[in-house]
Amino acid sequence: MSAIRTTVKHSIMRICARTVLRRAICWNVAGRHPLVAVTFDDGPTGDITPIVLDILAEFQVSATFFLQGNHVERHPAVVRRIAGGGHEIGNHGYDHSRHHLRSQVERCDRALSREGITTRLFRPPGGAFGPSDLLWLVRSGYTTVMWSFDTVDSMREEGKWSGPDPRYEDIVAGDIVLMHDDNATCVRDLPVLLTVLKDEGLQPVTISRLVGRLR
What we know:
The structure is a single chain. This protein has helices at residues 2-18, 48-59, 69-74, 76-84, 101-113, 131-139, 153-157, 184-199, 207-212; strands at 25-26, 35-43, 64-67, 88-91, 121-122, 143-145, 149-150, 176-180, 203-205. The protein has a single domain, classed as TIM Barrel (Alpha-Beta Barrel). Helix content is 43%, strand content 16%. α2 (48-59) runs parallel beside α8 (184-199). β7 (149-150), α7 (153-157) and β8 (176-180) form a beta-alpha-beta unit. By secondary structure, it is an alpha/beta fold.
């Protein structure tokens, strides 16, 4: 049964990557453009996120930050710095709960709106959502953003990862890269990742640009 689910998931991923369905949900984006999206979850934090922003500025890269509403309330100045740096902001729920998705989305939106920010990008905590959740998100105008390359930075930081380290050379055009701006492994790996992307001729862009080919 798990093999069947995996096959179905990969088929859906391929279809979404190549059609306008990617505006509803996407793991990656197919195409010839040498673009990738670097994304960060679980912030903002008062210590790690500013360092991440410094690194992105050094490399002149724009990224997408999926923020938690409770962290937005704790660190509004960092939120404003993210937005002021030309980065994109998405909704990551209020407190990383995988339950009551609609409430999580709405509470995070309210926290962002108090900082003058609106978004229709959503990443479910842990990548967990059900069919009814996705239907509500689509009807509400959200794009649900998943990922195709996981750096497992937080798991490595917490000692929960027993697999090999990520090979950033394996990233290809159209990939959506997942990182977390709440741990030291992210800070250590981010310059390495961005250097590899540059050497491979891949340009990091925001999710909206990757999904919509806005420019």
